[in-house]
Write a structure and sequence with these properties.
Blueprint lengths: L1 H13 L11 E11 L6 E12 L3 E7 L4 E9 L2 E4 L3 E2 L3 E10 L2 E12 L7 E7 L2 E7 L21 E8 L3 E4 L3 E7 L3 E6 L12 E4 L2 E8 L3 E7 L8 H18 L8 E6 L6 E2 L4 E5 H4 L7 H17 L7 E3 L6 H15 L10 H14 L14 H4 L5 H18 L1 H14 L3 E3 L1 H7 L4 H8 L6 E7 L2 E6 L8 E7 L2 E8 L3 E5 L7 E2 L9 E2 L3 H6 L7 H13 L6 H6 L5 H11 L3
Parallel strand pairs: 1-11, 17-18, 18-20, 21-22, 23-29
Antiparallel strand pairs: 1-2, 2-8, 3-7, 4-5, 4-8, 6-7, 9-10, 11-14, 12-15, 13-14, 16-17, 19-20, 23-24, 24-27, 25-26, 25-28
Helix pairs in contact: 2-4, 4-5, 5-8, 6-8, 6-13, 8-9, 9-10, 13-15
């Protein structure tokens, strides 16, 4: 009995050091997971089979796993089962083999036990509500490995086949529709789910417990809608179901792609790490955000739920249907969902108020971007510690602000058509920023400029002899800035200003010029005193007036008479912003 142990120790001593990222020579093709989950217990058991392609001969296979206790492992290769005495690391299981296998297809099989912690809110965990136990999962960005051995990076998208043994009085839900439920001995039953579309591990999900289920009306192109909540909360779920009916058709109309995952469940989680997570077919939310609470104003709560769902359901296209290839490009998920949800919610606003919320959000992230704690939108992730910052507000809010600017510069139709192409080309696969740039022709210099460096461009203009010169005043940075401008009697137009300046020939210099049309650009405008005097506030949109206040405050021009006028603006947000600017807030 000592020989296998000696083999394990000998192999472990010679194993190469593993990087945080898995190598490229073993590619997963399918994950099959069978679990036994009793939420009243603090552990669960599982069996994972992973079908893989070996691209070259290998004697060592690595898969992600964390806090799992192994019971047995083997590899099926060319019809024979090869036992593998696994070595468990901090983030991986290493499966050494007596001799190299590959290239070709193989199947990894691992039996294990895992934790179902009451205090954790990452990986699989459990909550107790009114005396009943429930199990939930939160895997993003790298905690699916706490629930099952897997290839836990966004580039590894595979179909998943999930089945769960549960108590007969419980219910189980996962990403895909349930296909069977079979009674078993000892008061148990086996619930099986249909295979999913290709998914990254981080958005695979399941939940188990004595849930109540509210069946809402179908939404969009007939998608079944359910809200899953702790026992006794069913009547609090109606607003959430109706929100999907309102929001889903708008998302489908913009993308040109019907909701791609068959069914859409919203699950209310009592204790949660995030506000929500976009698991395809089983979106998880903090219960207090999803369900109507006794003290809530129903009209206000309904709008908040629609806004929240616009973000999370928007992820079903941006992040789930097309997934960023690496965490470096998580903005392709979070920046897009933030922008997309605001665009959808703008449909509920009168034209005069559109973009006001985006301008205010941009100002908040500009304050961060101008400070010492900023970071680029795109940033490499090479360790668990790095991933603690993967969901930085810079990714969400600056990413979204860049997309607002892109939408105005390219034009809404051209931008929409490019994004539809991007979604179709990479459907159920992965994409990079470079792939997006290919679909949005001409966007590469601008996107690379804003995504890969920190800070805020500053733009100014001078018009003389019928020539309008637009230039940057902080040319130490290599900004490539799309400036959309307008003026008295001049049709709005856009021009890309490189690190020096750009010139436009006009018939004549307009009485006034505004360099950030509709407040869409991620830059500061610097005005001369004469330009401020000439501005006609009655000709500016609400978004432009709010942007003007923020630009004046940033330039410390708080004594401008324009701010005093804007204190009486009919839009409350604008009037308050002017008052705060004068007060130095």
């Amino acid at each position: 009995m000592r020989k296998p142990v000696l083999f394990l120790l000998t192999c472990a001593a010679t194993l190469p050091a593993q990087s945080f990222l898995l190598p490229n020579d073993v590619i997963p093709k399918k994950h099959i997971v069978e679990l036994t989950v009793d939420p009243s217990r603090n552990t669960f058991s599982g069996w994972a089979q992973i079908e893989v392609e070996l691209t070259k001969p290998t004697q060592l296979i690595a898969v992600n796993a964390k806090d799992l206790k192994l019971r047995a492992s083997s590899i099926l290769w060319q019809g024979r089962t090869i036992p593998s005495h696994a070595s468990v690391g901090a983030e991986t299981i290493l499966l050494p083999l007596p001799s190299p296998i590959g290239p070709g297809n193989a199947t990894i099989s691992i039996r294990y036990r895992g934790k179902l912690d009451q205090t954790a809110v990452a990986g699989p965990y459990r909550n107790k509500v009114a005396g009943d136990w429930y199990a939930f999962t939160t895997f993003t960005p790298i905690d699916a490995r706490r629930a099952f051995p897997c290839f836990d990076e966004p580039r590894f998208k595979t179909p998943w086949e999930i089945s769960i043994h549960i108590k007969r009085g419980d219910k189980a839900f996962s990403n895909a529709p349930q296909i069977s439920e079979t009674g078993e001995p000892h008061g148990m039953k086996l619930v099986k789910f249909s295979p999913t579309e290709p998914l990254p591990a981080e958005v695979v999900a399941f939940c188990v417990g004595p849930f109540d289920v509210y069946q809402g009306p179908p939404a969009g192109h007939g998608t079944p809608i359910r809200v899953i909540s702790a026992k006794g909360r069913r009547e609090q779920s109606k607003l959430a179901a109706q929100a999907t009916v309102d929001v889903l058709p708008r998302l489908e109309a913009y993308t040109g792609i019907p909701y791609p995952y068959g069914k859409l469940d919203h699950v209310a989680v009592p204790e949660f790490k995030f506000g929500a997570v976009e698991n395809p077919g089983l979106i998880a939310y903090k219960a207090s955000a999803l369900l109507l609470q006794p003290a809530d104003d129903e009209t206000q709560k309904s709008r908040r739920i629609r806004s929240l769902q616009a973000h999370e359901v928007g992820h079903q296209w941006f992040g789930d249907l097309v997934t960023q290839a690496t965490w470096d490009d998580v903005w392709l998920s979070e920046g897009f969902a933030t922008w997309f949800s605001a665009k959808v919610m703008d449909q509920e606003q009168p034209p005069s108020r559109k973009l006001l919320a985006s301008v205010a959000a941009r100002e908040r992230i500009m304050a961060t971007d101008a400070g010492p704690k900023t970071r680029p939108v795109r940033l490499e992730m090479r360790s668990r510690k790095d991933t603690e910052g993967v969901y930085s507000q810079i990714v969400y809010q600056k990413g979204a602000a860049i997309l607002v600017m892109l939408d105005a510069w390219l034009g809404e139709d051209r931008d929409r058509d490019g994004l539809r192409e991007y979604l179709q080309v990479h459907k159920f696969g992965n994409a990079t920023t470079a792939d997006l740039e290919s679909s949005l022709d001409g966007s590469k210099p601008v996107l690379d400029s804003f995504l890969n460096q920190t800070g805020i461009p500053r733009i100014r203009a001078k018009c003389s002899d019928d020539h309008l010169a637009i230039e940057q005043s902080n040319t130490a940075h290599n900004w490539i800035v799309p400036v959309c401008w307008r003026g008295e009697g001049v049709a709005p137009s856009c021009i890309v200003v490189d690190s020096a300046h750009a010139e436009i020939k006009l018939n004549s210099c307009p009485a006034w010029i505004y360099l950030n049309a509709n407040g869409s650009g991620y830059y500061r405008t610097e005005f001369t005193p004469d330009q401020l005097t000439a501005l006609d506030l009655t000709k500016l949109t609400a978004a432009e007036r709010l942007t003007l206040i923020y630009d004046l405050r940033a330039s410390k021009n708080i004594a401008s008479p324009l701010l005093t006028k804007l204190e009486s603006d009919p839009e409350p947000e604008i009037a308050k912003a002017a008052t705060d600017a004068i007060a130095g807030k």
